[in-house]
Design a protein that fits this description.
Dihydrodipicolinate Reductase, domain 2; Gfo/Idh/MocA_oxidrdct_glycsds (chains A, B); seven-stranded mixed beta sheet; globular; alpha/beta; about 375 residues; homodimer; about 35% helix; nucleotide binding (chains A, B); secreted (chains A, B); oxidoreductase (chains A, B); 16 strands; 2 domains; Rossmann fold; nine-stranded mixed beta sheet; oxidoreductase activity (chains A, B)
């Protein structure tokens, strides 16, 4: 039996998600928005019976068994952790910091019977599912290099907000780069142990953001990851990622894996491959023929991936009679909160590298930092 | 009147160059090869009246006024410097080290009336000539990012040789990267002041190179250059270059410049552009329709560029009655020996960066290093 759903957020993802959920048979019972007005407006548009601007009203809603959180990164941790504490299943977007991600991991570990997954849709896109399968089967031989490029128009909102602020989780690296960091660990079966990066904010002001306000989030980002794998085939893989969001009117989403005996390239939602020795590329998986609405803010790979993710959620829940129970199988490859912490750690290491100019190690937090740490350090300094 | 030409080298470039020279009306009088046999064989094939394996025989040949040097990097400096000393005009490929390049610069400065240019053909390719013109005219607005990628099959020769050896000037960075470093300074009008890079040799042995022999030259290279320009528009440009020569059966040669109001992309020999606000890319310069022979080892942009370079040389020389005199105009944008030293300095900085993991400064040699420097240091160390 499918669980009742509560949705947090009134942005473009929430707007696309609700119809997809309904199409799969989920009932969406409640919607939260930052203001009464925003919530009311979107609830009416999408036909959701209940709306509110108070988070507890959704979290404690009797008919809500699954909470989908698509709100600014800085608010995610609080809602996600609380939802798990109340016994609800959670699908959510990334948090703003590694400390927040760590708190989410702690909560997820504490309630292992609840579904807790990051909404990284790329892992569900058929092109990447097929790509991973082919990599496992040895299509490219020993993996050597992954090369990813995503080009597109500005990620900034119409008005000044978190998307402009690096510290609030804005910027190409945090918003888009994080989905790619996750994807590359999914594809290679390995994690980055050292990273190097360069971030730039070329457009610091525009027609809407001016005066004393300045954009601090990156619109160009370029990073390398050296993967240290568990298996021999994935250790030593070099990943390079180029993100450029100063290219209005374009959208490029290309993920290439080059190995010793061939290569695979996903362009948008299509997958191509070429084995060494063959004359040309072969189309391995064509366009899925997306028939849903086109969404300006949401590139097709994310849109199609979101649709596939919702299908997987339906399969996961429908196996059980009890509304809150779910089967691991259909969502086994989803991004876990642990993966989310890894991704956030890499994002922060890339930012550190961009400041230091040096390769930075990816060290995943194993305990929560002491909130008095800075204070203690200051006291220590004063003593000496 | 066109000068008589002497050619050094029996490789693929020399083989293509001679017919191009003849087609423009140059007479090729002499050919040098490393062995009598190689020289004889190619001279017969190309119809060159004189061949030898002794360099002086070409350099001192009465009818030779222009010397074209296409030999392994480690031998280039010696021939180029000697040719200038004998009063011959010189077109040559890159040297192996910055010290060699510096010696060539010294010679070129000493004989300013002689033509001395590096044979970087990309500066002559119509797509890049047009691209530079459009950049100057402000097509992209303020330049932000240059993104270059070149993918192709292995650069290694059939048998073990200098192409396998990093110290002999082999590898993707030295062979292909150097032409791109030069091209980017031509396009942006700026030079790199800091670089960061990563080199890898994924294929260290193959069917032909085995046993105790190992390839040390890079087959994957990835570097960033921060440009510090003379003009305000080119300072602060980030250049990223990805080279991958583990992709048999493919050839990608893409140079993109992104600016504040638009972008330009050269794919192969074609030039495309898109201004912000326009719906799609426009073709600015189509394929030149190369009608000459296809050369497996030589990608089309280099082949077409070589053809254009030979045309420019013809224009430069035909303006004058005297066989050795030339006009600066047609070859004014060619890569000078000074540019060659800059390129070599960047190449070495990228290699240093790949070892150190840090950003390295590009500091161009202003005097020849003392050959006893290492000895002195050793003595110094012993004293302490």
């Amino acid at each position: 039996m499918l669980p009742g759903v509560g949705v947090f957020g009134t942005g473009s993802t929430a707007r696309v998600l609700v119809p997809l959920l309904k199409a799969e048979g989920f009932e969406v019972h409640a919607l939260w928005g930052r203001s009464e007005e925003e919530a009311c407006c979107l609830a009416k548009e999408l036909g959701i019976p209940f709306h509110t601007s108070r988070s507890d009203d959704v979290l404690l809603h009797q008919d809500v068994d699954l909470v989908c959180i698509y709100i600014p990164p800085s608010m995610t941790r609080q809602i996600a952790v609380k939802a798990l504490g109340i016994g609800k299943n959670v699908v959510c977007e990334k948090a703003a910091t590694a400390v927040d991600s760590f708190k989410m991991v702690t909560a997820a570990r504490y309630y292992p019977q609840l579904l807790s997954m990051m909404g990284n849709t790329l892992r569900f896109l058929p092109a990447f599912v097929a790509m991973r399968q082919l990599l496992v089967e040895g299509y490219v031989g020993e993996m050597q290099v992954c090369d990813v490029r995503v080009y597109g128009p500005s990620l900034l909102d119409q008005s000044y907000g978190w998307t402009c602020e690096e510290l609030m989780g804005g910027g190409g690296l945090h918003t888009v780069g994080s989905t790619l960091i996750d994807l590359l660990s999914y594809l290679t079966g390995a994690r980055a142990h050292r990273v190097h990066g360069l971030l730039r904010t070329f457009v610091q002001q525009n027609g809407l953001i001016r005066g004393i306000r300045r954009v601090t989030s990156d619109d160009f980002c370029f990073f390398q990851m050296l993967m240290g794998g568990t298996g021999s085939s994935s250790s030593g893989v070099c990943c390079t990622v180029t993100l450029n969001f100063n290219m209005p009117g374009s959208f490029v989403h290309e993920v290439m894996v080059v190995g010793s005996t061939g290569r695979l390239v996903a362009r948008g939602t299509e997958l191509y491959g070429q084995r060494n020795g063959s004359k040309g590329e072969e189309l391995l998986l064509g366009d899925s023929g997306w028939v849903g609405p086109e969404v300006k803010e949401m590139p097709l790979p994310h849109l199609c991936g979101l649709s596939s993710m919702v299908k997987a959620l339906r399969q996961s829940f429908q196996a059980h009679e009890e509304r809150r129970s779910w089967a691991r199988g259909p969502v086994a490859t989803a991004t876990t909160f642990e993966d989310g912490l890894y991704v956030q750690t890499v994002v922060e290491a890339v930012k550190r590298s961009s400041c230091s100019g040096e390769w930075e190690c990816v060290e995943i937090m194993s305990q929560e930092p002491d909130p008095n740490h800075n204070l203690c350090e200051a006291l220590q300094r004063n003593k000496n």
